[in-house]
Design goal:
alpha+beta; 3 domains; Heat Shock Protein 90; six-stranded mixed beta sheet
Length: about 400
């Protein structure tokens, strides 16, 4: 920024983009300005500027910028008071009229609004400063949605490469997702390789939510509901004694592997008489159906919810319930003919890892397995923002 640029900012009367103050201690005022500029309520797609060391009523005032002051203002970027973390730059420049300094905080419009300070959405529209109304908040949410159509594609500012199991990415995932000759010729660095598979956002320099879900050593602090809770009851209701329970956690590679191992041998088959001359081996619950419906829950669940996937085995049925109802164009009247992906990157990862064979075919495969086993049809329900499937036990088991 040149002296002329700074002079123009000081002389500007654009109240929605520029805040001038001589104070160095009014932290609420500073953070509210940073929050407002991040939200860019006017939709101008231009940075906002907080100018520390400018007094509009006393043009002779001068500030002497110190390292401590610069550290103070730089800390506002990642101290967690303004969330999501603001995208901002802090620099000290000589006052264009001489005799002192101006600390310039440049705040870029956030790609993931609404941004909040102390739980409130601070905005500016012209000279008006305040908090967003419900209608204004809705506009900001729609703006975020247009920037990142799905949650798993959204950058995760709280994540970084150190939190990812990069060895698993190199040795397990990448060879299955990218042809060997492409890997051999690949001279891109690791963030670029992750970004090519939509696990990293180069502009924001952080993993996407999908990257954290698939590869983070421990994603639960960011996505506390990203787990599966299994409980087996000794009866038909939640009030009955618990026979077994287990919680599946970890990144999706770990969780899906452990779930797959758990399901193998979990459900038994035995001969049942189907006619006077013939017996057939039938499962209490067809393993393929249970697996497909669990994978469907992992793939389609709402990872912003703190609720886990519930995998409950009762004496007469299995219930699998995940947060997040039907998504997009899918509705009760057209399900499962119409399908939409809440988490398309997660879906792609599960396909690469071999847990999803064909997109949009999980429900059909589960129904086929139930029919071939002689079981009743699975029952689907959509209570609130939930998706529930009930798998009846085979009537002869």
């Amino acid at each position: 920024m040149t002296a002329d640029d700074l002079r123009s900012l000081i002389q500007s009367e654009e109240a929605d983009r520029i805040e001038k103050t001589r104070s160095t201690t009014d932290t609420d005022k500073f953070r509210e300005a940073i929050c407002s500029f991040s939200n860019d309520m006017a939709g101008r797609k231009l940075p906002g500027y907080l100018l520390i060391g400018v007094d509009e009523k006393d043009a002779s005032f001068r500030l002497q910028a110190t390292d401590e002051l610069l550290k103070q203002f730089t800390a506002y970027r990642d101290d967690g008071q303004v969330m999501p973390l603001p995208v901002m730059n802090v620099q000290s420049l000589p006052h264009p009229e001489g005799g002192g300094d101006v600390i310039v905080i440049e705040v870029l419009p956030h790609s993931m609004p609404p941004v909040r300070y102390k739980g409130r959405i601070c905005i500016r529209v012209g000279p008006r400063k305040g908090h967003a109304t419900e209608a204004e908040e809705r506009i900001l949410i729609e703006r975020r949605t247009s920037n990142f159509p799905t949650f798993d594609a959204t950058p995760c500012p709280e994540g970084d490469l150190d939190r990812l199991d990069l060895e698993t990415f190199r040795q397990t995932y990448r060879p299955q997702a990218v042809a060997a000759e492409v890997i051999a010729e690949n001279h891109r660095d690791l963030p670029e390789q992750l970004a090519a598979l939509r696990f990293y956002n180069l502009k924001r320099e952080c993993p996407t939510n999908a990257g954290m879900l698939v590869f983070a050593f421990d994603p639960l602090d960011l996505f506390p509901g990203a787990k599966i809770q299994f409980v087996q009851f000794d009866g038909p209701g939640l009030e009955d004694d618990v026979l077994a329970e287990k919680t599946f956690t970890g990144n999706l590679i770990t969780l899906l592997s452990e779930l797959d191992s758990f399901l193998k041998g979990r459900f038994t088959s035995r001969p049942v008489v189907v006619s006077e001359l013939r017996e057939e081996a039938v499962f209490d619950y067809p393993p393929e159906a249970v697996r497909e419906l669990l994978m469907n829950a992992v793939l389609h669940r709402d990872y912003q919810s703190t609720s886990p996937i519930r995998f409950y085995q009762f004496r007469d049925r299995i219930e699998i319930q995940n947060p997040g109802g039907l998504y997009g164009d899918a509705a009760p009247e057209n399900f499962p003919r119409v399908n939409a992906y809440r988490n398309p990157i997660v879906a792609e990862a599960m396909h690469v890892l071999g847990y999803v064979n064909r997109f949009g075919r999980g429900i059909a495969r589960a129904r086929k397995a139930m029919k071939e086993n002689g079981s009743e049809e699975p029952i689907f329900d959509y209570p609130g923002n939930q998706f529930l499937v009930v798998i009846p036990k085979h009537p002869l088991r």
